[in-house]
Predict the 3D structure of the following.
Amino acid sequence: MKKLYILLITVGLYSCSATNHVYISVLQPSPVTLPPGMKEVGIINRSLVMEKNKVLDIVDKVMTLEGDSLDAQASQASVIGLADELINNKRFTNVTAFNNINLRSNVPGQYQGPLDWEIVEQICREKHVDALFSLEVFDTDSRISYTTVPVTIRTPLGNIPGVEHHASMFTTVKSGWRIYDPVQRLILDDYPITRNITLSGKGINPVAAAGAIINRKDAVKDVSRKIGQDYAYRLLPYWIKVTRDYYVKGSDNFSVAKRKAQTGNWDGAAVLWEKETTSSSRTIAGRACYNMAIICEINGQLDKGIEWAQKAYENYNNKLALQYVNILKRRKESNNLLNYQQEN
């Protein structure tokens, strides 16, 4: 199935030597490729600490200023965020978060080793899912700073010296996810995500200054939910902007084609470039063949673009063309993976 993956084309506002820049937005395959037939998935949370390590967990919570059950609530928010986004992904027919599966972490805040495959297979078999998304680690770490700043306080009786109280809290939310494929016994992805939150406030007394920190738990839960959503995006293709050089000098046709390209009339520019591919000047013919490869990429014709770039290098020794051949070949491989992902 033929697809066009170029969304936006703009011409750079400057030139360098005999070339100008063109910026192209290209759709990239998703970082994670799931096998065909993976339609029903489950989500588990094994980041909570085992009962036998509760003392260690309590110490961790005290040292990192965590509120009561904050990690448990925030990690659950992350699971919900992931579940919501996976449900929005049309490739899945069913997404279920399993809150009653008691898988625990040995040590708080540390990445665990992978689950045994027998456990993965048992869960998938009993829950009738094709794969498991697992929150492997989740931890929050906070630091508080408190200062006073001299200020001038205006009163009806005049200005008097005073102090302003400043309080701030910096919280790091750490998480790590894995995707287990029980059929192939493969971990399809193993990915940590870290986000930071800074809350601060000021006032005429410590209570007023600390007011902004009171809602810390809600802020952590909101960020945690966003972490789950962001992880789901690893299953989606994404856009990047790439830069290509194209020739604008060499003949009158190149000068006119440059102006056409600057107005977005790439087809008109291509007509003039194609005329120069038979030029008696090897330099001009090589540049024209190279530019024809550029217009082919713009139009999504990668195979034809490779042919033009090869001709520019092989027949006319155009130095830019050899590198461009390899760029187009990598884009073709990327598009093949993208087609595979989207057809499954």
Observations:
- The radius of gyration is 29 Å.
